[in-house]
From TrEMBL:
This is 37S ribosomal protein RSM22. Signal peptide: none annotated. It comes from the Eukaryota. Transmembrane segments: none annotated. It is found in: Mitochondrion. Residues 63-87, 190-215, 671-691, 807-856 are annotated as: Disordered. Mitochondrial ribosome (mitoribosome) assembly factor. Binds at the interface of the head and body domains of the mitochondrial small ribosomal subunit (mt-SSU), occluding the mRNA channel and preventing compaction of the head domain towards the body. Probable inactive methyltransferase: retains the characteristic folding and ability to bind S-adenosyl-L-methionine, but it probably lost its methyltransferase activity. GO terms for cellular component: mitochondrial small ribosomal subunit. Residues 190-201 have a biased composition (Acidic residues). Its main location: mitochondrion.
Amino acid sequence: MFPRHSASRASRTCSRDLLRTTVHHHTQVNTQPFYGGAKSLTLQRRGNSTKCLTPASVLNSPIHGKNVNNRSRQWKGKRLSSTNAAPHADRKDEIYELIDNINRNEAEMARLMDELDLLDDYHGALNYDGPDPEDVFTPLVGHRNQEALEAKVQSARQQFGDYVPEGYLSDIELQLYTRLYGEPIAKEEEALDVEEDDDGQEPDRLYREDGEGGWEEVEHEVVDEEDDIPVAYDMEAPAEETATMRRAREVAEELGGELMLERSRAEADTQPSIRNHPWTLEARFGRSAISLPYNTVSGPISAILSNYSNKHIYESAHELFGGRKLPHSTTTLPPKAQMPQLPIPLRAGQRFMTEMEANSFLAVLFPGMYASALSILAEVRKRLGTKWIRDLITKEGGPHVLDVGGGGAGVLAWRDIIRAEWAAMNPEHPKSAPVPVGKSTVLTGSDALQARASIILEDTTFLPRLPNYVHVRDRPTLDDDTEPQPRKHYDIIIAPHNLLGISEDFMRKEHVENLWSLLNPNGGVLVLFEKGRQKGFEAVAGARDMILNRYISSSGATNYETLTESQIESRYMEKETGMIVAPCTNHEVCPMYRIPGEVKGRRDYCHFKQKYYRPDFLQRITGAKDRNDEDVQFSYIAVQRGVDLREKEGIVQGPVATDVAFAGYEHFNPEASQSEVQEPNTSEPASAAAGKVKTFHTLQLPRAIYPPMKRKGHVILDLCTPAGQIERWTVPRSFSKQAFKDARKSQWGDLWALGAKTRLARNIKIGSKDGEGKKERLARRAAAKAAMNEEGGDIDEQNEIDRLDKADLDDALNPGREKEKGQTVPRWKKKAGKRRARQAVKDDAERRVSGLTEQL
């Protein structure tokens, strides 16, 4: 047995008789833990996250179960007597000093026991469930001070609300409670009626007929009622079964199924169906709607906006972003709105921004940017795998993130990705504990926006402008052979809505080059996205085309030719290792961007959407009454510098990957032999291509560019293949039941892995340079219609009469006459007769109207 520490001996210096007398006279014993008990000293002991408190912190902490808030300060100037003539009031200070000594010794004892790992085995030595000494002595000697009295009343209010148990508060506490909150409602504890069985009562017996007119006893096993009590209890009471629910349950049991209630269906929707193919689940794009987290996004923004008038924010947002529907913000209106495709008027990097403009930036642009960035980063994390993000988290100093244009929205989205991955890595990690999110840098040109972003973001560096590394050498040259100064590199660069606001194409390319130079050359990821309209797609596709041509090397394209005269000595520049992460699964020319630059008449373009719930402040600005969700549309590109999974993991793209994907990965097993993998109905070309694919990866699958078209018995998918072509694949039920079911459940943006039965090239409308736009087409049609109206309507009638044969003109003028037996009337003659009859009725009506007009 371990020797007793001096601290435990000191804790027994209190007089036992005094304690016994005090407890005897105390009418209501509190069952709260001891003020200095072990529960207050150790936090999460069994979760391997023990946190011992010092005696000073125990003394300074409030009583367990009593939260002292700022409201108690309102009553500091009004002193109230604690009790009326308490018998031990003259020893009040000594008693409370004794209580403090007991708590101090108890804290020291708990700390020593925790260091010796004796807290779990000898927890009885501490006062876990005993009364709080301060609550015991308060009715006798009065409260410690005015703050303690107010704390007791506020604790009762927080714990019980309006229904306070009878006898819980003393007279002075009841007076203060009534003054602060009104008269409490007494709540009497319900007595439990326990029926005791008589000892002389005979046990229950079970009888049955013996077939001879008598009864015989049947032996049975007596089951106690306590055995029927379940071990675990439901937190919510089950729904009462109605007649309809009972009938539905019976039908479900007959069919071998299970009845799913509304609550169960909502829980099931949050998890992927187990009946879907594993490759289908892995190839899915973002599904559920995004709700902005209150603690990190919507809550801080609401607190910032609460200092300003809602009307002023409302008017400023409408003035900046084009009206009530905010067409010039991240919101994407349908094409029928015929709104001009203009860039967002506010940029995070602009040098001057008023207070209301900064408020409008947070209220209108922040939610859409956050939802778009979170959807894209989730897809990037899925494409690159778990190892990539966990290596970033565990690296020294953590990942370095740069937000260019989002004002901090991209950083918040990235931190949510980190938190989710950290929770998967450490399941026992408390949610409120900090997470290593790395270092963050945000571009904020104006002081107003920087002041607001600094409230939302912690441990963040703010830059007024980006460093320009495009015209700075990165290696020794003939003029200067010294080593260049080290540059600042980032692992993740998120650049929302940067390109569309730059009017000149060469300036867009220079901006993309500068962002590329800021990337970590050993695996940095650059994310660019714009609004999901034609001009936004053209800006992103132009950046993709430039990066492929100048920086990312592929098979057969490891360098590019510079056409400037100042670089004759280095005419051919070597490309770097890199790859397109998302959304493309090919490194060819974009099939929807065959003609570079802006074109007229573009109908088909690559874009995606993400649903999110608008916060309250954005709901007020839009004036929406019926729904609070919105689909933000965007076009994006994510590229990685310095790493190419095509070489590292043997990923195959191009026509070979397309043929294998057309055959389908439904029965593909990377660990099985090729003979086991092939299906009986696989064609010979697909079988030959499948021999070149030894692994499954989402980067070698086609991607749906539009929602699937569901028909009876088959599904039509419009896909962008790994070969860089737009094709239409048909998946009938006869091809595969699993593929047919998954195809009907697929959505816009998903990758497709289960193959198809037929494929053909899909005609897309990408416009042309010299084509006519929508305004020109409408003007041309209006002019043609006006010219036809000026010529009059007599020309068509005269031409129709001339086409009729003179011999049959009488028949056409008399369509109602009887035809001879066996005579067949031609169809053209019937139509001509009906037309002439309708014209005659119309002329007669016009004559009558004109006659009435002359009479008037």
